[in-house]
Automatic annotation (TrEMBL):
A matching Pfam family: FtsL
Protein name in UniProt: Cell division protein FtsL
GO cellular component, one term: plasma membrane
InterPro entries (UniProt xref): Cell_div_FtsL
Keyword vocabulary terms for this entry: Cell cycle, Cell division, Cell inner membrane, Cell membrane, Coiled coil, Membrane, Transmembrane, Transmembrane helix
Taxonomic superkingdom: Bacteria
Cleavable signal peptide: none
Organism: Methylomonas koyamae
Length: 90
């Protein structure tokens, strides 16, 4: 009877230790996952900032008068006089 009781207590202690180790391991894994989530959220924030910059650059590059400004400044082009413009009918 005493031997069975000792075996039972030993089994309970072993199960308790295994359970404690499992809790510690799962807590460690959850912290690693939390750190990974934080890293991915920072990357997402960085991508959103870059996306905003790209949207602003796209808006700047697609302005209608940008081509005209570049033509005047870099190519020294000017608009022709009104009487020099020829309209072609389709």
């Amino acid at each position: 009877m005493a031997i069975a009781r000792n075996i039972f207590l030993t089994a309970l202690v072993a199960m308790l230790l295994i359970s404690a180790i499992a809790v510690i391991y799962s807590k460690y894994e959850s912290r690693l996952l939390f750190m990974e989530i934080q890293k991915k959220e920072k990357e997402l924030d960085d991508y959103e900032v870059e996306w905003g910059r790209l949207q602003l650059e796209l808006t700047t590059l697609t302005e209608e008068n940008r081509v005209e400004i570049a033509a005047r400044q870099r190519l020294m082009l000017t608009l022709p006089a009104q009487d020099k413009i020829i309209y072609i009918k389709p």
